[in-house]
Fold:
Amino acid sequence: MSEPVVLQSASGPVVTIRLNRPDKLNALNEEMTEALIAAFADAGRDPSVRAIVLGGTGRGYCAGQDLEAFVRMQLSPTPVSVADHLRRGYNHLVTQIRTIEKPVIAALNGIAAGVGLSIALACDLRIAADDAVLTLGFSKIGLIPDGGGSLMLPLLAGFGRGLELAWSSDKLDAHEAQRIGLVNRVVPAANFEIETLVYAQRFAALSPIAVGLTKRAFNRSMIPHLAQWLDEEAEIQDEAAKGPDLREGVTAFMEKRTPAFAGR
Ligand code: T3D
Structure:
């Protein structure tokens, strides 16, 4: 029997949810997204859970949407629009992460790319191994940052820097990501698991009422229109996906070459 694509483990009040497709750098397919949504729902409603960690197995954290699965989905006789795919999957997950009134900590054990990075940015806090790398990656395949990335990136890193990162898809090392506000804490890769647990335990030990209501207050003060924005972002991504550059970008990724974008 094959391994589950999402693993769950508990250490006292801290639950760790781990993406588990290490050979594909934990790129997300529908099965994984559904399993993630179910795991967050379980952890959210379990009163014994006081902090949730989201991490990855192997050398990567998450390489974003599984591009092979994406192509299969687009080529199917009944393709789902990109906007609907986002709404059903990633936007649902991001909304869930923001509305669970418990600390949700992304544990970046390795590369975080595409919507994998967007989901990390939607978490409350981010801890990174000192050898982790962050990259938006969307622009390399003709897309915009989705999964709330076009909101959380400028919120955390600032408008100009956010736009520069979204356009360039530059790779940031963990220390640079911390310097610009994308990561809260950087720890040695060799101690990553234990440091992450200690970090999460610190928040799990606080008053769950104060922690939960502080999260609610920050949500309402800074991202009150999250749901509406996720919807609009999905529409804009749909427009990007209808252009020729997405096909060229994904084909170039699969052929391991640099894309040559023609534009409209
Ligand atoms: O409707 C919708 O869902 C639209 C929404 C889209 C949201 C998005 O997330 S779009 C962005 C998707 N992600 C990317 O474009 C990133 C693609 N990956 C990369 O650029 C690189 O893999 C990384 C920079 C992340 C890491 O590079 P590196 O050199 O460390 O590793 P690698 O050799 O490229 O990857 C290792 C394996 O993972 C490789 O498979 P192989 O050749 O060993 O069999 C590679 O193909 C696979 N892999 C990596 N990323 C993905 C992937 N397979 C499928 N989808 C991926 N995203």
